[in-house]
Amino acid sequence: MKNAKISLQYTALLLNLYISQYLGLGFFMEALVAILRKSGIPLEQLGLIYTLGLFMIFRFLWAPLIDKVRFKRFGHYRTWLFIWQSLMVLSLLHVSRFDVLTELQPLLIGCAFFAFFAASQDIAVDALAYKIVLAKERGMVNALKIGGGLIGMFIGGGLVLIVYEHFGWFYAMLILCAGTATSLLQLLFFKEPNDIHTIKAHEPSWRDFYRFWSGKSKRRWFLLLLAYPVCISGAYGLMTPILVDAGWRLDHIGLNISMFGSLLGIVGAFGAGWLIERFGRRVILIWTPFAQSIGILFLLLPALGYAHVSFSMLAIGSVMFLYSPSATVLSTLMMDHVEHSPALEYAMQHCVFSFSGILSAGVAMSLAGTFGYVNVIMAISLMAIATTLFAWYASGEVVLKKEEIRELECAG
């Protein structure tokens, strides 16, 4: 067991690694949606872009490789991070060669490679975070994860979208490359500690997926991971097309969603980390979806035609501020539930959360094309209240006590 608090060096490294994941993903899944919608692509087809997130969903399939294959001389997870981070940079350089409007198919293939490398990097950085922090620090470390992702969205989906609007695709991609490469410099000076929380009692395997989810409490935890992100992710998926259809310019969308919205999301993430440490995981788990049920309704303003800057910023700010606490508290609980293999077990829990969130965003966008924005917004707000009730019902079993967490950390 470690007895030192996480250092400033570790904090800076983890934050930058989490940021770098979403520089590219934020641009492709946020800015690219706006670019293509502006060129007339229908909502039903835009939902397909969210399939890039499938790599995040299924990354547990190759997570055992990262736990099993070790590079003792240069650091286990440090070496994996070098590999995946370098491939992310190279894939962005490849994508920069294409024209977004005339060469969409090869461009999306390149984006898919980037999404695979980013998902693999996420496996390694989550396992490294589990390795170097104490249980009591997990709330703030997962705030780094969510906050870092939002900073990446802020830059990739906001600032880089503005660069695209004024200078074009090639220069936008170069900025993404430069930002993604910065963490490679940090890794050069990082020395991974040899000790680890959990001594693995067996070799990690994909069969652990079934073993891990056995038992009544784990099945409820699975259902909660599946249900919890549905509403807020659906609302998040509607924001960009609502503003595009309201006549907003692309650079204004980037400024307000990926910059203003992400800033509020960052505040929400670190606020949630502080609240988790102060009030505990259970309180935040229960009350977050209830707050979301109210915040989601502010999307009705631009959806009904009240698309003035103040109304739209209220809607964007409400959704983004309330999105990050749910991701922060669930990520913290995922680390609590790790038993043997950090890379595999965290990844397969997060795949359930990611699957639900990405699917919900795409489905909400497609349903809005059929039933209209207003009806979909009202439906997901009501679903958020149901999620609150389910979180209250399941929290007694899915939120582990301090003694249980210590037993897991000392297992093996």
UniProtKB/TrEMBL annotation:
Note the InterPro entries from the entry.
AmpG_permease/AT-1, MFS, MFS_trans_sf, Tet-R_TetA/multi-R_MdtG-like
State which residue ranges cross the membrane: 12-36, 48-65, 77-95, 107-130, 142-164, 170-190, 221-243, 255-276, 283-305, 311-334, 346-367, 373-394
Q: Provide the alphabetized UniProt keywords.
A: Membrane, Transmembrane, Transmembrane helix, Transport
GO molecular function annotation: transmembrane transporter activity
Q: Name one GO cellular component term.
A: membrane
How does the protein's chain sit in the membrane according to the entry?
Multi-pass membrane protein
Query: Keyword Transport: yes or no?
Result: yes
Instruction: Name its cellular compartments.
Output: Membrane
Q: Does the keyword Membrane apply?
A: yes
What SUPFAM superfamilies is this protein classified in? Answer: MFS general substrate transporter
Protein's name according to its UniProt entry:
Major facilitator superfamily MFS_1
